[in-house]
Amino acid sequence: MVTNEQLSLTPSQHARRQRVLDAAMQLAATGGYDAVQMRDVAATADVAMGTVYRYFTSKDHLLAAAMVYWVDQLYVQLGSHPPKGSSPAERVLEVLDRALRSMNRVPLLGAALFTSINSADPAAIEAQQQVTTTLDAIVLQAIGTTPPIDAQNRSRMIGHIWYSAMVGWVAGWSPIERIYRELEIAVDLLLPTS
């Protein structure tokens, strides 16, 4: 989902901003959160330091924006490859499974992105809100055309459980399989199976 700030960018500015995001994600994928230093991001993206700071006020803002980008890509992918399943619960679980597998394929990147959205940086908080909004849209889309009357609340609760479980994954005491099982229990309790 595009922000008002991004709408005001020219095509070349958007391309530079995207190169900065890609560079940060590349550095995080190979070295995790600590490997993302603004000077290294600028060098990897082949832009000036001022360019990095023009678009992102801090490392957490940059990585949180990368998380927004990652979630937006998931949303687009689900639009072209909708989840299968005969019930809202099956479809939501498939979507959550795709997201978890995607993060687990590049665990250092996933942990870095997740760490950034825990920041108190005001710009990162705005990104947190965008992530939450998009994740809600993803879950609601997976629920389908006959949602429960309080589907928005149920989606939000699933998001809270996902977030809580991811804290354990990032900290290293909860494997991805456990997160999936916890989400499976939550979805089973919160969504209709038929």
Write structural notes for this entry.
The protein has 194 residues and is mostly helical. Helix content is 76%, strand content 0%. It has helices spanning 4-7, 11-31, 38-45, 49-55, 59-80, 88-105, 107-116, 122-143, 151-171, 176-190. Helix 9 packs antiparallel against helix 10. The chain is globular and about 55 Å long. The model has no long low-confidence stretch (mean pLDDT 91).
Q: How would the blueprint of this fold be written?
A:
Blueprint: H1 4-7, H2 11-31, H3 38-45, H4 49-55, H5 59-80, H6 88-105, H7 107-116, H8 122-143, H9 151-171, H10 176-190
Helix pairs in contact: 2-3, 2-5, 2-7, 3-4, 5-7, 5-8, 6-7, 6-8, 6-10, 7-9, 8-9, 9-10
**Residue runs with pLDDT of under 50 for 5 or more positions:** none
| Total of DSSP H or I helical runs spanning 4+ residues | 10
What is the radius of gyration computed over CA atoms, rounded to a whole number of angstroms? 17 Å
Give the distance, in angstroms, between the N- and C-terminal Cα atoms: 31 Å
| Major beta-sheet overview | none
By oligomeric state, this entry counts as single chain
Outline type: globular
Mean pLDDT comes to 91
> Percent of residues in helical segments?
over 70%
* Strand-pairing-aware structural class: mainly alpha
The amount of beta strand, in percent, is: under 5%
H and E order = HHHHHHHHHH
Number of strands: 0
